[in-house]
Amino acid sequence: MSNNQLAVYQSFAFGELTQQDVVTVRETIGKDCNESQFKLFMSIAKNAGANPILNEIYPAVRSGQLTVQFGIDFFVRKAKETDGYKGYDVQLVHENDEFKMHQEKDEDGRYYVVIDEHSWGMTRGKVMAGYAIAYKEGIKPFTVFMSVDEVDHFKRSQIGMQKTMWTNYFNDMFKKHITRRALKAAFNLNFDDEDVAADNKGSEGFQEYQPQGRKDITPQPEVIDQPESPKPQLSEEEKQIKKLRTQITAKLKQIGVVGKDNVSEYIAQNAPTMGEKPTVAEYTGLLELIEMHIDMKEINSADADILD
To answer: Which residues are CB-contacts of 243 (< 8 A; sequence separation ≥ 6)?
Structure first.
C-alpha cells in the first residue's frame, strides 16, 4: 500500500479508530469494495461515528453495488447515549408459554402495548412470536411485537447468506430484528434518513457522505412572493405514490444507490417487471425489497454481534 493511500486513509480515522484500523477494515470487511466505494463507506462511518472495527457498520458489494448497514451494536450504543435511556428487553414467545398482552391509551390518545403475563417452563416448544421493549424516562415503555409469520420469508430467501443465517440462527436473528425496530422508534434513531450529497464529489469521483440535518416539522407561515396559479389537487393514489417515491429515494441513498442511472440499474436488476408507470402495489413491493437489502447488512455480521 502506497504512502499516498495511507495518507488518504488517515483522513478517515476518528475516535478510537486509528489509521492502521482503517487499513485493516480495507483489507478485511472492505476487501470487496473498489477504492471509491470504500471511501464512501468510510465517509458514512466517520460522519455517523459508527466504528466498523466494532461491527457497528459494515459494507457489502453485490453485482457491483455498494450497500451499507448499521449493526445492532450501533443502535444499542446510540440509544445509551440518548437522554433518558433506561435500557431494553427482548424475549421470544414459544407455543407452550403463558402469554397475554393488551393495548392501552395514554393521555395524548396514543396507544401502547402492555405485556400482562409471560411465563414459561422447561418445555417451551417452537417460537411463535417475539417482543422488544425500549425503556425511556418520561414515556411509556415502547414495545414492538412481531409474529414469526412476519419474518418467515427470510428463511425462504433466494439469497444464500440470508437464508442460512435465518435458518441456522433464527432465534438470535429474530431477537436482533425486533430489538433494532424498538430502539429506532423509541430513541428516534433514524439513520435511514441520513443522506449522501450527490453534488459533493471527492478527488476520485466518489460521493462524500453528508449527514442530513434534523427536519423542523413545526408549521411555518407561508410566504408568497408573487401570485401563483392554483396547483392541481393530487388524487389519493398520486399522494401515496409521491410518498412512496420519497421513501424509496431515501432508502436507496442509504444503500449507496444515488443518481438517475444507478437507480434505473438497481430497479432493472431487482424489479425488472416494473412498468413505466408503476402502481402503488409495485412501489410498495420495491420499498420492501430495498428494506430487505438493508436488513441483509445486519445479517452479514450476525456471528459477531448476536445478542445474548
So the answer is: none
